[in-house]
Amino acid sequence: MPVVELEGVTKAYDGGVVGLQRASVSIGRGEFVFLVGPTGCGKSTCIRLLLKELEPSEGEVRIAGKPLSKIPRKRVPMLRRNVGTVFQDYKLLPNRTVYDNVAYSLEVIGEGRDQIRRKVPDILRLVGLSTKLHAYPDQLSGGEQQRVSIARAFVNHPPLLLADEPTGNLDPETSIGIMQLIYRINRTGTTVVVATHDKEMVDKMRRRVVELREGRIVRDQESGLYRPDESTTEFAIRLRGELGIGAEGHPN
Amino acid sequence: MFFFKEALRGLRRSTAPALAAMLTVLITALVLGVFIPIVQATMGAASDVRDRVVVDIYVAEGASPAERESAQRAIERTANVRSVEFISKDEALARAREKNPRAFREGSELLGSNPLPASFRIVPDDPTKVGQVVDRLAPKGPEGAREPQLTAIDEVRYREEDTQQILSVTGLVTVVTGGLALLLVVASVALIANTIRLSIFARRREVEVMRLVGATNWFIRWPFMIEGVIVGFTGVALAVVLLTAAKESVLEPLSDRWAFLAAPDTIAYPLLVGLLVLAGVAVSAAGSGLTLRRFLKV
Ligand SMILES: Nc1ncnc2c1ncn2[C@@H]1O[C@H](COP(=O)(O)OP(=O)(O)OP(=O)(O)O)[C@@H](O)[C@H]1O
Ligand SMILES: [Mg+2]
Known about the structure:
heterodimer; A: alpha/beta; Rossmann fold; four-stranded antiparallel β-sheet; 8 helices; B: alpha+beta; Alpha-Beta Plaits; binds adenosine-5'-triphosphate; binds magnesium ion
């Protein structure tokens, strides 16, 4: 059964702006999917629909086979406990230490004290922050803050991780570290959806790419590139780089 | 425990409004703490007086014992009469003598015979109905003078003005203090509500993040709720401390001199404290609850 399914989903905002238009996509267990496209194409809309922060105007969104429209308001927190989220602006609790930020998502699900004391340092070690347990978010670099938010998203081991431009505020070097972390989470069997502008990252990772344009899905490709029309040139440049060949090459 | 820590965290960040709310609760509790015993004492005194609202019916000098007895039965049957007590001439004299021994030592000898009439003393079942009782026993005639219905009765008397005054004063005291208390309670609820509202606004983004990681409504609300109750409870606790200090240092030395201050039938102090604490916690819970319902919807 697919983990994420959109079936003919349309989202029209108040005022007639269309965020998503008759989008259908199915994402299986353990997949790693990039959601790409120009700004305003509906990537964030898609993520928010999956969190039931928004209701679709038409169509159906299903997570693990369960239509989100069937989840009553009261059960929405239960849905979110099973979906890890990472955002461009980290969304950390500013007055809490790194440790408390991560512990919070365990406290929310009623995890015992001992479990919290064991799990939090473990996950922080995994994301490489074991020395900053008691630092506050404003004492951390952007990359470090994003690591905290990833730790928080993953500490419950949710079956699905959604990331909306996780590297949007980070420099390329730091971005690689963050992507690596997300990839590692994917390797544990977690389904991962990453909305991003980061062309280089998409091209390097060579995972499934779903491209949106003005709310429509215009491409859904296994091991795709950020922009397929550039693929041959890109491919050539990359190959040349990897093989150490000069820049002349053959025209294609 | 977790919620309690969260609540303290919130209070540390919105100290000013929390202090304002706490002060309001403190003042409310102080006023209530002072007024409840005072009102009670007044009401106690008033109800004493109310119990003393009586109607005296003087028996005609020449009435036979049979006439007198039938008059008593007739009075007992009258509506709104709680009890009827017969006071004979001798008893009337004895009572009068007791009240004013000197006047009667000489007086009765002077008069040679007992000048006081026998009477019935009627206690109405409800002090406010005393007028009706009198009207039934001796309706006002065409010239405005009361005309007793029974032949054995000479005159019906009651202290009309006293009674009316007592009744209206007690009524006023109840209304005024009740109104004041209500006003203060409303102000306290409003200020606590405001504290919590500011606290929620200050942490809007935080609340959003909490929802994102799957916190339920109540998981988010509890700390705010506890925050309000802490504010209310601290206010009441301070008020109790002040009240106790005032009681020990001012009231107790004074009440040695003025017995009425020791007001025997006012509320017991521990009970009063208990009531105040209960009221404080209830008020603050109500204040927080109201705001949470309005501002923390998911
Ligand atoms: N709350 C909203 N109310 C009205 N319109 C909205 C709202 N949120 C988004 N939109 C509109 O919906 C469209 C899709 O927005 P969305 O945020 O999904 O784009 P995006 O792909 O995430 O863009 P970006 O890459 O810049 O983050 C845009 O035209 C946007 O203006
Ligand atoms: Mg976006």
